[in-house]
Amino acid sequence: LLTSATVAQAQDFPSRPITVIVPFSAGGPTDKVARDIAQIMGKQLQKPLIIENAAGAGGTIGTKKVVLAKNDGYTVLIHHIGMATAPSLYRHLGFDPLKDLEMVGEIADVPMVLLGAKAFPPASANELPAYLKANASNISLANAGIGSASHLCGLLLQSALQTELTTVPYKGTAPALSDLMGGQVNLMCDQTTNVSGQIKSGAVKPYAAMQTQRIQAFKDIPTAQEGGLPPIEVKIWHAMYAPKGTPAAIIDKLSAALQAAVQEPGFKSKMADLGAQAVTPARAQPASLRTHLGHEIDKWTPIIKKAGIYAD
Ligand code: MLT
């Protein structure tokens, strides 16, 4: 039942700035996608979208903040594939992504690359399996916490190679990248939106694109399989959510602004330059996100259960 207050609320939405919760550190790959899309959506909605980083626990801390936020449309979340893996990684997650959040729509697909510190001995991917097996206990693998994209990719790599490395969790892959560049950690999977500059400058060693096709913007990086690694495929998708009960008329306004933003030439070319891809407007809609999130939960749950790891 739409009360007249709700109708009025929706009609003049947004009447003030909107807070976008990013559940990882500032400056990282999720933060970058969020800031880019927020800026364009702000123009569409004629009110600024302001990023607030609420990091920790692989993105679940920031997500919980939005689950508990007021459902007036002035708090939204931008998160990635971690929304689909958290339900199987966290036994006491405290929320059900499909029941306790409203879907707004998807934003971009971002590929992952496996990176080594410059001084890490293996010169290329085909040297990794033997080297990792022989030196596992002395090798550190950075990630952004259990449930993060970097964690998921590292999990697949370790289970595919039957090798357990020492994982070092950070609040996002921005701080992890500076330790990788400094040689404090040896390896990391990360999204190209975070590491494209460092790959181009040679500040880190790209071993493989963690997918079956080469990345258009990084054609000289072999795929995992070409590099002699198991054919690991982990593509990171980013989406926007709102608290449960946010009025449908407000969700529709947010989704309409998102659909326009993902088509904006500047956003599309910026994503392409970073090796990523803006989604089609069809995917920037609530129903499409709900279907995709459901499929991803179904896909990753058995994989994670088989790996037998839990965050809590
Ligand atoms: C980030 O934005 O820091 C990343 O999404 C972390 C991750 O998921 O690996």
Automatic annotation (TrEMBL):
Q: Please, which domain of life does this record's source organism belong to?
A: Bacteria
Extract the InterPro entries matched here: BUG (IPR005064), Bug_dom1 (IPR042100)
Query: PANTHER family recorded for this chain?
Result: BLR1237 PROTEIN (PTHR42928:SF5), TRICARBOXYLATE-BINDING PROTEIN (PTHR42928)
Give the similarity note: Belongs to the UPF0065 (bug) family.
What's the protein name? Tripartite tricarboxylate transporter substrate-binding protein
Name the species this protein comes from: Curvibacter microcysteis
Query: What is this organism's lineage?
Result: Bacteria, Pseudomonadati, Pseudomonadota, Betaproteobacteria, Burkholderiales
